[in-house]
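Readers outside the structure-tokenisation community will struggle with the description of the input data as it stands. For illustration, here is how one protein appears when written out as sequence plus structure tokens:
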Amino acid sequence: MIPINIDTIGKNIKFYRSLKGLTQCELAEGICTQAQISNIEAGKFIPLSTTLFAISKRLEVDMNQFFHAFENPQYDYVQEFIQEVRRQTENRNYKEVFQLVTAEEKNKLFKSSSLQQFILWHKGVAIAYLYKDYTLAIKMLFKAINLTYNGKRNYTQEEIQILNSIAAIYDLKGHSTQATEYYERSLKHANFIQDFNPKIKVRILYNYAKAETTLANYSKAINLAEQGRQICIENGLLYLFEECTYQKGFCYLLQGEVEMGKRLIEQAVVLFRLEKKEELATFAIKEVEEALTTIQ
């Protein structure tokens, strides 16, 4: 008989929830409350067997896995893989992302639908940026989202991130109007999730603002960029704050409010340099000079 350790149960549930890309609210839906999930993960009490069974079904793991010692090298390997793929994606190192996911896509450790979804999602994104095959990339992302989404519920946090990627690739493809439709859908479903990750929401707002800028909807783009800035301020985030600041300033510039635009862009350039994003600072300065030449 496997001994019951409440810390082990809690850590494993949290681990599998993070692999699945679910928030505590999403995991709790129809099973228990978010507070109960929080207490279970914190090792404060052991849930009923029926609750554990329901959680295991939602997470697509055998319930017995919750009782195994957390120091499992396979768990560590999967977790490290996910963190590395996310880190390389955030740093726009798409060649590394492609190599990582291609190397593991047939690994038996990654056979669950959620992990297959994660691999397919990031492979599609890498293909879009590396090989510019936007049609194939979008096809892969829709396939990824359909691994878990059945159309009968709200999207999960992970699925919303895939929607955001679909929108971004439509924008890269030159289909900005279609991109804005997917950004709007992403935001709508994000608002249904109580503990939605603010970094993800900022990313959606920033990308959405860029698409609206392409469509010359500058007032809307300014509003979206400012929403992203406010979320950063409220949550103490630097993530994409300077990008949102730049996008807001650039839109002011394009609609003729030159002084306001230049002031915001100067702030963004300072922040880019503080964050050691010299390439972005240089790009921003060049783009502004070109815009000012056109305006004048």
User: Anything to note?
Assistant: The chain has three domains: 6-67, 84-196, 217-296. The chain has a mean pLDDT of 90. The chain is about 75% helix and 0% strand.
